[in-house]
Design a protein that fits this description.
Layout: H1 4-15, H2 18-35, E1 46-48, E2 54-56, E3 71-77, E4 90-96, E5 104-109, E6 121-122, E7 130-137, E8 140-147, E9 153-157, E10 163-164, E11 170-173, H3 176-182, E12 205-210, E13 215-221, H4 222-226, E14 238-246, E15 252-260, E16 266-274, E17 281-284, E18 289-296, E19 299-306, E20 311-318, E21 324-326, E22 339-340, E23 346-350, E24 358-365, E25 370-378, E26 394-395, E27 401-408, E28 411-418
Antiparallel strand pairs: 1-28, 2-3, 3-4, 4-5, 6-7, 7-8, 8-9, 10-11, 11-12, 12-13, 14-15, 15-16, 16-17, 18-19, 19-20, 20-21, 22-23, 23-24, 24-25, 26-27, 27-28
Length: 424
Amino acid sequence: MKNNVAKIKSLLHGVIPKKLVNSYIDLARLTCSLFFDQVVQNEKIKNFSHEDGHVFFGYYDVTPFGMDDKLLLAMKTPIIGRAPNAEDHAEIGYYHIDKPDNFISLGETNTWCWQQGCRLQWYPQDNGDKIIYNCLVDGEYGAVIKDISNGNIVKKIKKPLYSVSRDGKWGVSLDFSRLQRLRPGYGYGILPDDSVSDLAPNYNGIELVDLETNESQQLFTLKDISDIEPHESMDGAEHYFNHIMFNPSGDNFLFFHLWMSKDSKRHSRLFVASRDGKNLRLLSNSGSVSHYNWIFDDKIILYSLVSDKGRYMYAVFDSLSGNVEYFGKNVPKNDGHPTLLKNKKIFITDTYPNLCSQRNLLSYNLDKDEMKILARFDDSRDFTGEFRCDLHPRVSPDEKMICIDRLIDSKRVISIISFDANGL
């Protein structure tokens, strides 16, 4: 979603001396700290960093926490303010949560991006001692499964993976070069995009990957999806896929179909399909969908333009019936990255920078219709666009910790916030 606050700040910088704008922001931050409470005090937040690099994890739809909540996956990358190229390698590794200064390296990859990393995650099989992440395999985008006890590669996967089912048997893949060209910061740019000349290729799409046999099959193409209930804005537009996620049982997945219209505006809609690509359903056709998460096998929390309401909001979409359920009046109003806790009563989300140039970590209690600010984090005016650092909150398996990516002294760090869900 577009960040209107960032636009306002950019406009202010254009007409008011930068020092005055920065002074206003500093004063606003001080005011927020004095008059607005937060649940977690900053001095109780644990940071994981490295003196000569950025440390971060990536997106919010997978967790860096190990099964026993003792290990934390992370990436360490060079300090650069641009899209990574083939020479910019990210170290893959982990921390013991009680040793935030000791990064244990397991290898490296040059297929990574600022928003989603390399899709690093715990491999669901084999007692939680293996990881899976994207890298080059025989000169092409692929993935590896690696044993953290010795750093050895257990298996090479011939396709790059966007999402992995919770049983570890299936993955889904897309064209990461096309994704990076049309949505910088979400794909990889080290291999050429061979589909540049095609607006909606009939050979480029979403693939299902059998992680046991290493075989893959295309489920549908960009041409297939763009032909379904097309919008007028699709005339002459370039199409691509993003944001694929298996549901908890792994028998269905959601995905975004996006297109860049001729006036350079981004449009999007939400689809759901069964794992084999059948039972394809267009769940939201409003033209503007943003962040999402499965909360049950057949229900999705989504921030989007809701057609029936005519405004942007969080809502729950039933993937089978298409029905939409709404939250109370105090649900967070702004876009963020939501995760529902196991008790199904609270979801955790975040915000983009406000006029104080701060990002908020939020909780919302569905039963009480109550929102709380868990913590505030200063943002940097130098990290914008593709290079921005969203919090991307991720909850530990025991639901006592939240992990975020944030900025401290112009470097990305991972922070862990302890919390008590019973107090929310």
